[in-house]
Amino acid sequence: MTATSARAGGARGVAGTIATYLVLGVASVLFLLPFYIMLRNSMMTQMEVSSPDWQWLPAIFSLDNYLELFSDPSVPMASALGNSLLIAVVTAPVSTIFASMAGYALARLPVPGRGAVLTYVVVTMMIPGSVTFVPTFVVVGAMGGVNTTWGIIAPGLFNAFAVLLFRNFYLRFPAEIEEAGRIDGLGYLGVYLRIALPNSVSMLASLGALSFIDAWNAFLWPLVIGQDPASWTAQIALSTLLTAQSVNLPGLFAGAVVTVVPLAVMFLVAQRYIVQGLTTSGLKG
Amino acid sequence: MTSTAAPATAAKAVARHPRRRVDRHAVGAFILLTAPTVIGLGLFKYVAIGWSLLLSLNDARGTLELGSWAGLDNYAFLLSDDGFRSSLGTVVAFTAFIVPVTFVASLALAVLVNRVRRGRAFFRTAFLIPAAVSYVAASLVWKMSLFNGLPSGIANTLGDLFGMSPVPWIGTEQPPLYWIVLVTLRLWLQVGLYMILFLAGLQAIPQELYEAAAIDGAGAWQTFRRITLPQLRNTSVAVMLLMLIAAFQAFDEFYNIFSSGLGGSSTAPVQPPLVYLYGIAIKDQNYGLASAGAFLLTVVIVLVTLLQGRLVGFGRKD
């Protein structure tokens, strides 16, 4: 489309290209604006943040707000960040590997009753995720999982949708490679561990990266199950600062920065996998 | 010779009687590989939903054990409760705003990004990176800076350039300006995700179609309407479904923008069903009523999804 319109249109094509860049330029500035505001405000003084006169940058760059944020005894931001990291670091690989295991078995292993297990998995997708917070709370609560890290993590380790994605992936996996492994004396588990799994690295990375983002940014479930400050995640700590109508504005923005920056960096590093994961899960589901 | 012949006959036997001869090793591996998923879903979906269904038929307050049998009382209460009904109205209105706006914006951005050759990676990243931000952090920036209602707020600073006086965006109920705050927030967070899906759809359209259209002298708009849009039909259906289901489960931004907190949500001008259910389940600890609400909401979401499928299905005929 680019090539044809530019060639055919001549002057009109050039004008169109300029207009396209103009729209995209303005839109991207608007999209990046909140990041800039977050960083700018986090380094300003209270006076500067609430001043009606526009200031591009703080007069003095100061990290005092960050120090203050981490020394606030009522909102344990440091331990909350630690909890979030632990939750995301456990959830992403474990949930992805579990899904890969089940997806492989459902796609490849010649077992009677395979279809029934597939149905069993698919049926759970009919009830939308966050609506189930009440039933899940009922079960995790009965198991004594309130205010525990495992209570936050456990329900997120089982993802029916990811199982389906992996099943589709392994259905297209060339059978010859597996047969070669069988001839070399590998059992069914050996073929999965030595051949199928190492060949799914990009799929594991894609879905793992998405799972990491979801686990880090999750709000409703950690809010429901982790009511004690010791079990707060970074999102709950930040929300507590926000809804407590804190008067320390720069401190609030510093809180936003420390919860956003680790993920934004990971996002930029793993962007290729994230885009791949989004297209796989968005369109093939 | 014999050693190679034996497995061959065994394989033949398996092929001839696939149902009778069950490969025990395969069954063992199958059980090992599917066990975590089967047990996990069993516990957190089947047992959870089953128990919750029982609770919804009981008067269970402050206890996760079954209280006293209440039949359909919880459902009847919710269906006649103004709070629950208006929360459904809220989420329908929210969906009616957010879905078309996000749909058009993400499609437009995808078409534009797909057109440029230089800087494509930069633009794609700029629109996608908000997807890494949580609703809580975004709510903080929207509430305390962009739309804080003070002269220092970014929206009001921009308005000042055009001679507008400061507007209390979140506090104004008439007209309900808070919708602008809620819709722009979700738009910012989600538009990049859907743009990526549309970009993948656009790149799958055969180039020859555009070349043929150019030869026939079709204009840009005509090409878009007659080729791009119909070719994107499957992507559009998937995107709309994802948006719809996500909008019906809105919670984070409503909770954080309106500061419902644990203290109560009486100050919030609007609350979606999940905020309402959260109040019943966690604040009032009325698990029976909250369970009933969760099932009613599920029914509503399934119905809306089916309705959307029907509408799109009708569109396909003409």
From TrEMBL, chain A:
Provide the topology term for how it sits in the membrane. Answer: Multi-pass membrane protein
Question: Where does the ABC transmembrane type-1 domain start and stop, copy by copy?
Answer: 81-270
Against InterPro entries, the record matches this protein to: MetI-like, MetI-like_sf
Q: Where in the cell is it found?
A: Cell membrane
Does the keyword section mention Cytoplasm?
Answer: no
Q: Which UniProt keywords apply?
A: Cell membrane, Membrane, Sugar transport, Transmembrane, Transmembrane helix, Transport
Protein biosynthesis found in the keyword field: no
GO cellular component terms listed in the entry, alphabetical order: plasma membrane
Pfam families linked to this entry: BPD_transp_1
Task: Report the source organism.
Answer: Nonomuraea maritima
* UniProt name for this protein: Multiple sugar transport system permease protein
PROSITE patterns (UniProt xref): ABC_TM1 (PS50928)
From TrEMBL, chain B:
Report the transmembrane regions from the record: 26-49, 88-113, 125-142, 177-200, 232-251, 287-307
Q: Which GO biological process annotations does it have? A: transmembrane transport
Q: Which domain of life is it from?
A: Bacteria
Q: Which InterPro entries match?
A: MetI-like (IPR000515), MetI-like_sf (IPR035906), UgpAE/MalFG_permease (IPR050809)
User: Is Aminoacyl-tRNA synthetase included in the keywords of this UniProt record?
Assistant: no
Q: Name one GO cellular component term.
A: plasma membrane
The protein's UniProt keywords, in alphabetical order, are: Cell membrane, Membrane, Sugar transport, Transmembrane, Transmembrane helix, Transport
Q: Where in the cell is it found?
A: Cell membrane
Give the bilayer topology. Answer: Multi-pass membrane protein
- CDD domains listed in its UniProt record: TM_PBP2
- Domain ABC transmembrane type-1 stretches: 88-308
For the keyword Membrane, the answer is yes
In which family does this protein belong, per the annotation?
A: Belongs to the binding-protein-dependent transport system permease family.
Q: What is this protein called?
A: Multiple sugar transport system permease protein
Q: Which organism is it from?
A: Nonomuraea maritima
